[in-house]
Structure of histidinol-phosphate transaminase:
Amino acid sequence: MIGPRYTPLAASLPATVPFVGPETQERARGRLFRARLGANESLFGPSPRAVAAMTLAASDVWMYGDPEIHELRAAIAADHGVAPANVTVGEGIDGLLGCLVRLLVAPGDPVVTSDGAYPTFGFHVAGFGGVLHKVPYRGPHEDPEALVDMARKVGAKLVYLANPDNPMGSHHPAATVLAMIEALPPGTLLVLDEAYVELAPEGTAPKIAAEDPRVIRFRTFSKAHGMAGLRVGYAIAAAPLIAAFDKVRNHFGVGRIAQAGALAALADRDWLAEVQTQVALSREGIAAIARGCGLVPLPSATNFVTIDCGGDGTFARAVLKALIDRDIFVRMPFVAPHDRCIRVSCGRAAELDAFAQALPEALAAASAGGGV
Amino acid sequence: MIGPRYTPLAASLPATVPFVGPETQERARGRLFRARLGANESLFGPSPRAVAAMTLAASDVWMYGDPEIHELRAAIAADHGVAPANVTVGEGIDGLLGCLVRLLVAPGDPVVTSDGAYPTFGFHVAGFGGVLHKVPYRGPHEDPEALVDMARKVGAKLVYLANPDNPMGSHHPAATVLAMIEALPPGTLLVLDEAYVELAPEGTAPKIAAEDPRVIRFRTFSKAHGMAGLRVGYAIAAAPLIAAFDKVRNHFGVGRIAQAGALAALADRDWLAEVQTQVALSREGIAAIARGCGLVPLPSATNFVTIDCGGDGTFARAVLKALIDRDIFVRMPFVAPHDRCIRVSCGRAAELDAFAQALPEALAAASAGGGV
């Protein structure tokens, strides 16, 4: 009996998982984490109004969600001053990025990103056979000029920019992004990932005309809205590009609870403001803990703080391991020179206390040779 | 400014939506449906234990779901007597079908299905450039011999069989499916869609060895488990094929509430038994209503009854329209000769009463010339 005949592309792909979940680590360790600070989830939780809406929707879950996602798209459109035809909603930014790449990238097509930027974007590009060209960061920032230069050089169909950036927490002001859009070569689409932008300083999100064909921006309910486990993200772009998503998307993929929760979260501006305040305080707290240990916290426009451990990647990996051994779930950038850092998500007092307790021990353990 | 450069395949695709949701119709009509009997949802609702689990999970939704979906996969594996490595979970059968087609179907690759079978499968095949070869039903049944013959003739990579069948409600006994598997040409994978199988007679689901490389079976929490709006389906197949899904799936796509709800539903055998009882009663009720109007209800192994309206497609479409005009949401098969039928989902007494009231009026209206 012979097995399935995969496409040549599928046969060539590794069974990569872009991220290992903390649950996988907990199962391997046989012990739960004390502080879940590795996945840039919002430990401040979802809006109570969103929880109420999801609870109500749980009993209605026998019904498929509206495949047009009409109410949520209308609310998002109103929030952004665009038309519903400029908005599509999908299973997180991850799911939407997959659709976008599928629409534009055939085997061999060039795509540009930064070396060390969000790996799931690269996962999708590889998954559709695209060729990823990477440019280095400039310090802790993605480098818009280098991205545009590379896009021009290789004729990129897509160029990816996260603003604010993950994993570094840095950001560019709106004017820099607008200048990047103006400099794009013809036929290169800017993939502007704004997953963290609600947590960035005023003036980070550029004003972009709804029908500008040069850019598609992505937002999510996973970060500031505290609903990573709900899987709702959205894209804003020119209507023809948004309509193209209907060619390939999983039309019932955003379910009934997801639509209800996101709609309620979007309406709860007080909760968002509260989270913004708590995140700002928590960033200060993490930075103070880092400084207290003689480390350098990088400025953050997100719900995490990237901390320069002051050594090389080997040292930072040892610190990370020692933190995990102490039941603190954190992650770190994959790529040098950023892999001198660890990345710590904002949390409440309890988690920050646990981190404050573990960090000096972890640094001592790492300095002593990487052991526990 | 030039826009995005789509792939030739994406540019060629229509922006088809396989199904129009009842919400879309309600918005167009400016009026809600009285009875939602068109989408084969379970009007008996989800397990109360699943509702409780989803409610609990709503507050935890700030956390990403486990990307390995470990607990749910383990529970499904135990339920089926296979290993967790034989199980993958995705965003409904729709989402899983999309991944499967992506793994196997490159532009021009042949795929076989029945003319009038589940359109979303065809949507995915077209979406990856596959060529769909269709064979007719034999009466109300999909025709396994014809499917296998066509698969051999065209060298199909995939052949699709829904057992029980949607939209006809018919089923084959397990032995027929097993014979079909034995007859498959080498290198053709059977896509066995068992979305409705929990509602079919004992002996419908065949026993298939976990590592049989010739077949992948799909199940869902959307039908008997009453959670269509949660978006959880699963596939059971040989471990190498299951592992291949990791190459392309949206790893965080099944969220925290979805995993919790499905796990609780799977454990609630009493609720499943109750739904099975209610569905059987409701099928009888729908059949009696149809017979009372002089129509012929087809035998059903699902949570819907397909009713032969006794005329041609034009007449059945007029009946459908007249039912919708009377606020009864039903659907019908798309393809002749099945489009002589309408398809009515099982419901509670209130919905069946509404249908019983509307059907004679709708038939009269259709007979009078298709008007209201």
Notes: The first strand of chain A starts at residue 35 and ends at 36.
